[in-house]
Amino acid sequence: MVIVMASRKREDIDHVVKKVEALGYQAHLIEGVERTVIAAIGDERGKSRLQSLESLEHVERVFPILKSYKLAGRESHEEDTIINVGPCTIGGKQLVVMAGPCSVESREQILETAHAVKEAGATILRGGAYKPRTSPYSFQGLQEEGLKFLKEASEATGLPFITEVMTPEQVPLVSQYADILQLGARNMQNYSLLLAAGKSNRPVFLKRGMMSTINEWLMSAEYVMSEGNADVIMCERGIRTFETETRNTLDMSAVPVIKKLSHLPVVIDPSHGTGVWNYVAPMAKAAVVAGADGLMIEVHPRPSEAFSDGAQSLKPERFAELMKEIRELAKFSGKTLEADTGAAISAGTN
Ligand code: PEP
Ligand code: MN
To answer: 259: Cβ below 6 Å to ligand 1?
Structure first.
């Protein structure tokens, strides 16, 4: 933390230095021409907060030197993180497309959708078995049975699968089945869930909370990473604004912003981001050109019969058309739909 002194008097500076040291930090004095600054160095966890020194009369301002998300931030980790999931690489040259229904509704429905999205070129299967619904009377998901159906569909198609986990208690069970754990928008600041996912051995797909800033979202990634799980994928899925034409306002700027602030992969979910099926393709294409590492798209064989999110789900034919366009557009951001074998190839040719 940096403490900017309002006073230049020796006794005032010494007083603050003593306070900083008493809080367990090292104090480094930087005496400029116009200002005296104290750099307080140390781990903030378990110690009183330096920020409260701002209440001292002789202190002008207290602010952090480094970003608070030390593990998720690019400051301490320059290279992009690349996460391997089965045959896929997330965060490298491959553009991953996660597709499937909002909810797993039956064995037949998930098998049919899995084959259709695979055929169209998707690389990861999605489907919800535990559903966070606004109403307790809405369909809550097939739960463990849904996980079994997802596993079967994943094995039948060779697509790894991602599914949501809603509570810390569900983490061990869902990790037994799923290749990636999805933490939903409503749970982005459920700190016990973040810590439990951080203890799991699965990559974590962290959706942005609908009322969260990018800083808060990165701090949630930091929770997962602080438990030793470095494989976090950031997913922008739209935030609440005053706009009502779309379900949420998809913050496309999250792509370059996350890329600047963090080394973690970033995925766009245009389905929840817009809530309307015919807005999904334009936003998916924009995301690819903006440099997203992947897309999450809801696809249902018969959207009008879907148990959840039918209005924003693409029919398999429309998804297949979109995939053709995405294949072309991916070239604009130096990506391909195929697995990133770049590292292996360059190692072989050197
Ligand atoms: C979902 O992916 O179906 C879902 C519930 O997403 P979100 O958490 O973004 O609302
Ligand atoms: Mn959904």
So the answer is: no
